[in-house]
Amino acid sequence: MKIGFKTRIWGINIDNINPVLKIITDFGFQGVEFSQRPDSLGVNNINELSESLKKHNLSFLSLTCGTLIERRNFLRAIRPEYFYLKYGDLASITSLAQEGFKPVFHPGVFTPIRGLSESLPLLENNPELNLICDTAHMTIAGDSFRSYMQIIDRVSAIHIKDWSPEFGRSGPRFGRGFKKLGFGVIDWDYIIGEIKEKNYEGWLVIEIENNEEKDLLSTVRACAEWLSTYGLFHNENKYYIVKQPIHKISKKYYRKCPADIEASFREKITEASTKRPVNFYTQVAKAYSELIPSKLVSVWTFSPSQDYLGLLICYPPIIQTGKLRRSQDLLTGIAIDRQAVITEFDLSIKHPGEKYGDSREPNLPRKIQELNPRKMISIPIYNSGNQNYVKFVINVFPKDDMEPSISVNEMYKLSKAVTIAADFMLDSVCSLAVTKVNLLASKHFTVKEFLQSVMRLVQETLKCEGVGIFIVNRTEDKLEYYDSIPGTNFCHEDEKYYLKGEGLTGNVWKRNEPLLTTDCLEESEYLGKSAEFSSSPGPIGVIMVPFRTSKGIVMGIIRCNNKKSSPSFTMPNLFIDDDVAILDSIGQALVPHLQILLEESRRAKALGKLTHELIFPLVAIRGAAEFIIRNKEINNILDYDYPGDIWSWSELMRRLLGGVDIYSYENLSVSASRTLLLSEVIIPARKQVAMLARERGFSLKRINYHRFESVPALWIDRNQFQQVVFNMLSNTIKYCFDDPERFQVDIDGQKSGTNYLIKFQDWGPGIKEELKETIFIEGFRTNEAIEHNITGQGLGLWIVRQIVEAHNGTIEVTNLKNPTEFTIRLPIELSIRPPVKQESQS
Questions:
Q1: CATH homologous superfamily of domain 667-831?
Q2: Which of 424, 613, 664, 750 is the most exposed place for a label (fewest CB within 10 A)?
Q3: Which of 261-265, 356-360, 774-778 is predicted with the least confidence, judged by mean pLDDT?
Q4: Where does 433-518 show beta strands of DSSP type E?
């Protein structure tokens, strides 16, 4: 295999290519893939670039930036290793091959062809076409690297790139998850192993999107060192002695923006970043109208996945209703093709894009044509994590005969400030939504209540008409409808689910990727199996976002339809990519809470079913034991009271089945009756632990109780309090670690002020100070329990606290060791009346 380097980390413009090539060759790389436009490489023509590559003994891999015509014209005199194609270039596959180029296509998430499955028909229909496999995009799309290796002869290059899902998987934010090699979630051992096993002979191209090193030299060095750890690098020692300083690109700005104008612009953009999306875009348009005296400033939202441009904002607001356009139908699309490059158009000529090799006509909205603008400046605002992905485009129409006081290069510098502001704005909205989800989770303790509150949050945040939630069932073969507001209509009431790949919703599950569409009725995958409420006829804008487990497996889908129009936006009912990012954040925030609630709900249902199944054999066992106890002839034969043991254990089992609601999040129900603690709770519970004690050689005589004469009969649930004492005693038995001398329990009852106290003392290993509260948490087990293989699920003390608090009492550790002491406090009112249910504090 051969290893190359992509020049993305040098930015969009290189003044002098030679220092860049020297760094790449000094570190031992064999080829270069350029990510700058032909006119931004610091050379006058292709021959000059070719000579520089030969001088540094580097192969020319490809040129990825610029329009198709720009790249094609630049490369007429030379043929690189492959010709890089974007989605809009696919119609030229055959003609490029006829000219001697080797066309390759790069599938990309959040584009119309996102992964391998969508690319395979292209390969089948175009035998001259090959692919680039991008390890990061492949991971996000859920593709298997092994699948790429099965068509290894059609893979010209593998882009080596790492990624982490910390920013989510929405179009506006996923690019910020690109990481240093080895610092993401990609399984490099598996990928590198496959590359070696298949004896791949194509190009491995290192591509760093977000430079996290202090300088570019450190970035290239880090990549070379990472490659060497896998035995891939062919020049293992040379990079340690490289002394070449990093080339500093000169900044040749002309008509530099006056300091006061720049400061004012930055101040306005910073202020805009604190607003919600609708106000943010309006403020940005206003800021540009002041920066460049203009007839009009328009903001176009861009969706790479749908390849459409939508007129979002006009300032002044002369256009009330905008339309969606394909990017190839507008001049603005040229600026997007040139990849985040500010592009000027002379509107006084018939083909303003001709100097960029494009013959499309202006095709401006009628209201803009009436202004008779002579010039348009398109300023793409790119995704900060991936310059190939434009977030939105600002079109400025300067006033006639007024030359801007700012150069194109200076505009580009200021556009970076807009990118940062857009990221900050979106991060703030997403963070607020996540915080609200967490607050909702603290207030609701059932799945239904929680998800209904989340849907209301989505409806309020995105200003949409309908919200529905679907959840993958336990067998993972259906995506089942759970709930919606205001309501979801199904064609067939007995089919409230989607199979994987069925319809738009099922395909979101299959692809594990959000969907944004301006009219779901026009989508080829639309089935009409179900639909949320819509207040008006016509196009139905829809977004669907999967929410995933920590392992990236789809747990469910949130589906929204018909965004309510904002007076500031020209696009009616239009969702934009920002909405997808916000919904993605809400979906990921709800996952851990939903997992807990679903597990609790499933456990409660399972316990309910188990209780039902166990009641009948238990009744039979108790009946048989009662018969034997009453039959003196049978009792005389036995030399031990086995029937008594059976009765005692069946009584414990009956009590457990009767109190199964302890294990749910629902408030514990209490069936109180006047009960004597000593004779009706402690002594029966003491007898029920007899078998546990005998198994370890412990004597029940070492369980002592006294002073209960001061505690009258209390209104408590007898069965539940037998459970309390049983749990406390069984804990003591288990934690004495089979040491009879260590085993001793004192149970003391007394009155103290407005409470009755029950104290349990034992001389076991004790409790660490920091665990005084932790031991009452559901499922918690100490290190000693794990080391000594003590059985249990960490529920005993949690159940005890649930029962005590249901009686308006408390339990706490009042001494840590020698003896370890637990104190239960019960209100004195229990001697007069049953416990009154306490209202939860909101």
A1: Histidine kinase-like ATPase, C-terminal domain (3.30.565.10)
A2: 613
A3: 356-360
A4: 464-472, 479-485, 488-490, 497-498, 515-517
228's tokens: 């060497």
| Mean pLDDT over each residue of the chain, to the nearest integer | 85
Quote the CA–CA distance of 37 and 69 in Å, as a whole number.
Answer: 11
Give which of 123, 85, 121 is closest to 101, Cα–Cα: 85
Given a contact cutoff of 8 angstroms between Cβ atoms, the answer to whether 209 and 386 are in contact is yes
Beta carbons of 830 and 756 less than 8 angstroms apart: yes
Domain 254-427 and domain 444-565+575-600, same fold? Reply is: yes
- The CATH number of domain 2-247, selected from 3.30.930.10, 3.20.20.150, 2.102.10.10, 2.40.160.60: 3.20.20.150
Measured CA to CA, the distance from residue 304 to residue 383 in angstroms comes to 11
Q: State how far Cα 574 lies from the chain centre.
A: 24
- CA 33 from centroid of its chain's CA atoms: 32
Share of the chain above pLDDT 70, in %: 87
The pair of structure tokens assigned to 371 is 């202004």
Topology given in CATH for the domain delimited by 444-565+575-600: Beta-Lactamase (3.30.450)
Give the start-end residues of each E strand in 596-742.
673-675, 703-706, 714-716
- Kindly report, residue by residue over 798-835, the tens digit of the pLDDT: 889 989 999 999 999 999 999 999 999 999 999 999 99
**Phi, psi at 543, each rounded to 5°:** -125, 140
| Burial of residue 512, with CB atoms counted within 10 A of its CB: 0-12 exposed, 13-18 middle, 19 or more buried | middle
Contact 86, 280 (CB under 8 A): no
The set of residues, in sequence order, having a beta carbon less than 8 Å from that of 421 and lying 6+ positions away, is 269, 270, 272, 273, 280, 284
> Is 389 in contact with 110 (CB distance < 8 Å)?
yes
Decide the pairing of beta strands 745-752 and 810-815. unpaired
Measured CA to CA, the distance from residue 445 to residue 727 in angstroms comes to: 26
pLDDT of the residue at 636: 67
Cα distances from 695 to residues 153, 196, 699, in angstroms, run: 68, 59, 10
Q: Where are the domains of the chain?
A: 2-247, 254-427, 444-565+575-600, 667-831
Fold classification of 254-427 is Beta-Lactamase (3.30.450)
The pTM of this model reads 0.70
Percent of the chain with pLDDT over 90: 47
Integer Cα distance of 46 and 501 in angstroms:
47
- Answer with the residue of higher pLDDT: 667 or 239: 667
Q: List Cα–Cα distances, 391 to 171, 273, 308, 426, in angstroms.
A: 9, 15, 12, 12
Neighbours of 829 (CB within 10 A): 15
Q: Write the CB contacts of 436 (distance below 8 Å, at least 6 apart in sequence).
A: 457
Helix orientation angle between 259-272 and 277-291, rounded to the nearest 10 degrees: 170
